[in-house]
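Hey,

The postdoc asked me to send both predictions to you directly instead of through the lab channel. I've kept everything plain text so nothing gets mangled by the mail client. Protein one:
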Amino acid sequence: MKSDEASQMTGTRKSYLRIVKFWRLYRKNRAAVLGLVVVTGLSILALGAPLVTSFEPLRLVARPFQSPSSQHLMGTDHMGRDLFTDVLYGARTSLQIGFLAATTSVLIGTIVGALAGYYGSYKDEILMRITEVFQVVPRLFLALAAVAIVGPTVWNVIWVIGLTSWPTTARLVRAEFLSLRERPFVEASKGLGAGDIQVIWGEIFPNATSSIVVNSSFEVARAIVLEAGLSFLGLGDANVASWGRTLQEAQSYLQRAWWTSLFPGLFIALTVLGLNLIGDGLNDALNPRLRER
């Protein structure tokens, strides 16, 4: 019993030290820390939207085109809706779609890339040809067609973005597996009788996770931009607030009410920039080649 407790404490301490080491490396990139602060702050505002604003999203609460004031921090739009409220709830929509769609695409891409890179031969050829089919058609056009068919609900948009965005991850994971599958530790594991599943997910995959984690942050940013584009083109869920639809509605009033396009556009830019900075920081902290410099 004492031996088990000691080993558990040792494992906990090692995990703690790894986290501390990771944070020390990550915080060296000040831009990445700023990106983390921005994204964390936006996430807190989005989750706490009911506590931050007293208005409900998509509700008419005042006269149209009121400029920013103490009562309406970002003004009102052409229908008299509080823009601050719609932007906050739009952050909820964008972050939800971004993270869930990215999770879907990374899972699919990781499985496809791992199988292609590990087995090679005709299996690799088949999987990569399927991947190229998805890459030939621009992602936005493919997503437009799919959402138009299945309907523009939040969950449909999540699935569509996830199912059209996995090829980038698949090619990245495939390259990692091609590089790692010939390493001595893989050969040793096979020599000890480990099966393919154990070798793929127990030996090779843990050594490829750093690249996958870094890519995931960029996938979230791309998913948010794609969702905003779909909403801007009228294929977002009409029952929820959305940055893209707010921008689409504001384009006819750029000269009359500049604030209706400035604030949702600014939030999109800040969120995407923050996620890209986080990705750069993760790359600096997790990439062993960069750590050696």
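Protein two:
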Amino acid sequence: MAPIENDEILELFLEESRDNIGGLETDFLDIEEAGEDIDDDLVNKVFRAIHSIKGGAGFVGLNNIKELAHKMENMLNLVRNRELIPTGDIISVLLSGTDRLAHLLENAIESNEIEIADILQQLDDALSEDGDEAPVLDNEMISIQIPGLEDVIEIGAA
């Protein structure tokens, strides 16, 4: 799927995504500092931010952004379910993923052509080193309300 042609919807997605990604570095460092004493609210906040980026990216056809956010979301799901301790290595790769997401968002129109295999592999490797494999999340639905439109858009998160 090619990126969505509607500039207004794309710009709204990018604006929301930049807001979502804005404080993630600090949040990830706080998660790392807490270690095994996981702050559920903070992990859920970060999970929701990444989940929103994933869902919106899928809606507007930014597949690399969606795929990277999905991998990060899987890792965060393991953390919030206390199946993965947010060690320095885990947080480091999540920070690298956040940096790459920011780069992809800044280059949204070309983002589907930007190579992301390396960061996807780093995320997979971080889980493999821990002895786990990333689970696939259930096909849950998310709702997106776009300002100026009356309808709420339902998207199946894959």
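Summary for protein two, as requested: The helical segments are 7-22, 24-34, 40-60, 63-80, 88-106, 117-129.

Thanks,
C.
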